[in-house]
Amino acid sequence: MLFRPDQNALRLKSGAHRLCMPYPSVDQFVSAVKQVVLANKKWIPPPGRGTLYIRPILFGSGPILGSLPVPEYTFTVFACPVGRFHQDNAGLNLKIEDKFRRAFPSGTGGVKSITNYSPVWITLAEAKAQGFSDVLFLDAATGKNVEELFASNVFIVKGNVVSTPEISGTILPGVTRKSIIELTRDFGYKVEERVVPVEDLLNAEEVFCTGTAAIVTTIASVTFKETKTEFKTGDKTLAAKLFATLTDIQMGRVEDKKGWTVELTDATTPGLKL
Ligand SMILES: *Cc1c(COP(=O)(O)O)cnc(C)c1O
């Protein structure tokens, strides 16, 4: 089962456009992913034991000295069996990063580009050395609002309202984020995509993060300027319910009424039979 490959293809396309790179069509992208999965089917973990993580990569290369777009581009699809990304079932302990910023207005924070990680790797390394699981970045313009984690999006829950930072160019538009917004609304919650001040996060009842690898992961605590705030964790959280619902759809355990999954069999993809 593939999860929303078309959405990932469209995101690669808009990111490549922003970085002046040529890109594969949605069909080329999805077909390449299918071929890689079928060619590696023996590496797909058994149900409940993990997933086959797929990472499509577009890179440029060539004999060029100037700081210009290169003459040659490669699109490749990498796959690797993985277990759960965040091992910590008790929930993550985050540190709000108060010195370095991940993205700035009109920059490339909204592009899934490798150039967004190395400038802030220092913050994650420091947080991990201090015993934290991940970092939470603040917006570069004011330093007052939360944006996202190192590689996942953040949501806060208070009563019947779920809030998440809006897509404004500085956060990565996660496919999981988009799917979780839809499922949360289906559960009857009001979802607000808006500016989320740090105070709102610290006053929330529940906090969780989303991403292809993180799926939906509960956040147990957030530390801001040495003060630690704890949040609800466990089976009764909205995060636990969303995790169960999303993985049921992804694994084909329930009917996919949204059309998010693509089932891959030799029969449904005859041209790709290997
Ligand atoms: C990949 C990523 C996400 C999550 O996006 P998904 O499409 O849900 O996997 C969020 N933030 C950053 C910075 C990311 O790199």
From TrEMBL:
Keyword field: Aminotransferase, Pyridoxal phosphate, Transferase
Keyword presence, Cytoplasm: no
GO terms of molecular function: branched-chain-amino-acid transaminase activity
Record PTM N6-(pyridoxal phosphate)lysine, positions in chain: K112
Cofactor(s) for this UniProt protein: pyridoxal 5'-phosphate
Pfam families the record matches: Aminotran_4
InterPro entries associated with the record: Aminotrans_IV, Aminotransferase-like, B_amino_transII, BCAT-like_C, BCAT-like_N
Biological process annotations from GO: branched-chain amino acid metabolic process
Family, as annotated: Belongs to the class-IV pyridoxal-phosphate-dependent aminotransferase family.
Name under which the protein is recorded: Branched-chain-amino-acid aminotransferase
Organism: Brassica oleracea var. oleracea
